[in-house]
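Q: How would the structure tokens look for this protein?
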Amino acid sequence: MTDSRMVYGPKRLLKQPQQYLHIPIEYRGTTVADVFVASQELSGLEIAYIDADEDDDSETIGGAVMIGNGKDGYYNIDFELTPDHRRDGMLDFADEDYDLSKGRAFLVKTGYQTVQLSAQSFDEALKQLP
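A: Here is the predicted structure in token form.
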């Protein structure tokens, strides 16, 4: 299981940078999407994968990003991904389809609202966080 880590958004004039929990969605040992979670009513962040669905042409991975903890409960955001030959593809995240060629980072705002960032890397995403 991949562990989450605390990261900080960009420094703003006269304001402390906001804290986020980060967890990657990985495919064959490579990060295909980064999920950043702002402060929520539930603390903690984990990810769980289901067994891959394999056929002759593609492999679909899926699972859930679990915001929360074993004591207080979890808010689950399901995901499913079928990568194409370039590692891009469509990511079904929070019941929405996202084209990874348009961005590989996702922000879960307070209140569990999910938005896609245009960043193609972890470092780019850190600069785009509010």
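The longest helix spans residues 122-128.

The mean pLDDT is 88.

Upvote if useful.
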